[in-house]
Amino acid sequence: MKGPFCEERRFGLSIPELLFFLRVTRLSTDLPTTTLTLDLSSENLTMKMNKLLATLLALGLSIQQAPAQTGSHFSNASATRTLSDAGDTSGYASTPAGRAVDMSVLAPTSYSYGGGVQPTGYSQSSYEGEYSGYGSYVSEEASTPSGWFSTENLLTFAAKRTSPVLVTTSGANVLPLQGATGVTDAFGGSISPDMILGYRMSAGKYFGAQEKVGLGIRGYGIFDSSEIFAHSSTGGSSIGVPFLNLNAGSPNQQTAPGLTGAAQDAYIVAGNTPAALPISTGSVRAADQLKMIGTDISGYILIARSGSFRTDLVSGYTYNQLRNRTSLYTTSTNQFTGDLIANGTVLTTYDNFQVENRFNGAHLGVLSSVVRDRASFSTLAKIAFGSMRSRVNVAGTSTIAGVADTQGIFAMPANIGTTTSEHFAFLPELGMKLGYAVRPHVQLTVGYTLLVWSDVMLSGEQIDPTINLSGLGPRPLPTNKHSAYWMQSVDLGLNFVY
After folding, report:
1. Domain positions in the chain
2. Which of 368, 373, 458, 489 is the most buried (most CB within 10 A)?
């Protein structure tokens, strides 16, 4: 197909203490006839051809691709060039037996298979038309297309994202401590996104009668993907926000295996004590959002082609942006008697971790396509390399009876704010596409794409689950964690050539 490879007991402490990314020149027409000859009487034609080509290369003769023809298809006989045709300015002549070099072998053009020898399965007459050098069917009345425009829907599947467990749930009289019997990790840990809808549009054109160079542009992305957990309780179940408490003495603490000086604890959003005494009623909403957009501008340089096959070197500029946001919002009404907070007091917390990864760089790759009748198959392998700039923003708020504070549960003074880092990264891309021409200039396509980021920052990985409630020590801290990430998609599209 023409065109390029065409995502509390709430601690028992006060809330302020609590809330924290790779020339056959036309054979020279000046070669003397005595330089090289072919004698078919002693060896077969294939061996002589191989020896001739090897001799030409050894002598350092320049090789230039035969010009593509713009008229009707010609036969293999007329597509050959003899070594004695020094005065032939057309480049093609009738072939004396035993003295010809088949130019479709040395420098195949888009019409090399128009004569008596065609590759298996490539039938021009079956559709009564012509084929361009890049796989698109064109009727006899139409000119050979050199431009394309395509639009695709991407059914995208992304890698899992990780974070600390942010929400736990349990029965009414079971404290929602992570890892305890009867407690479920409701959100966080490993976040498995559902299928994400995406899009890709591309356009471009090959230039000149021989179409040896081209220029194309693509734009792609995914629509906003959000994984959300929301739950509320009036006492029939427990809701907690688990964390590792560096301070001994919290009534909800349990020893955390493998940790020294830290224990499992939880901020109780809703639930009762084991003795069925009410602690609070409330609700929680946790979300992880992912967005991605990208564009690239590519130059295409012909490497090789035949009547049904074309390979281009692809190089150009790539821009990509991957954004991830993890947020946690709680609201609860105190019902515990005997603490320092009046019954009925409303408490809210909000934590927001947001990361933006921006990539700018060059790309290099290979694009190949083959056509048989109405069907085509193309592959793309390219890698972008350049600068990845990652920005992390952490913010939090909390309120007690309407009085606000500038920190949440995991967003505390030591990690609140914006940090930026810049590093070298790679963005490899692999793709395959099948196409079927339903009309002379229209093709339906189905394909597969894999896109990888070698080094990005993700929001959930920036959350430090360890908290120092005493305020004596900088925890939670910025984690500054980097990781690789990938997306793969099934691509359904429509391609137009002109």
Report:
1. 25-106, 147-161+189-235+278-497
2. 458
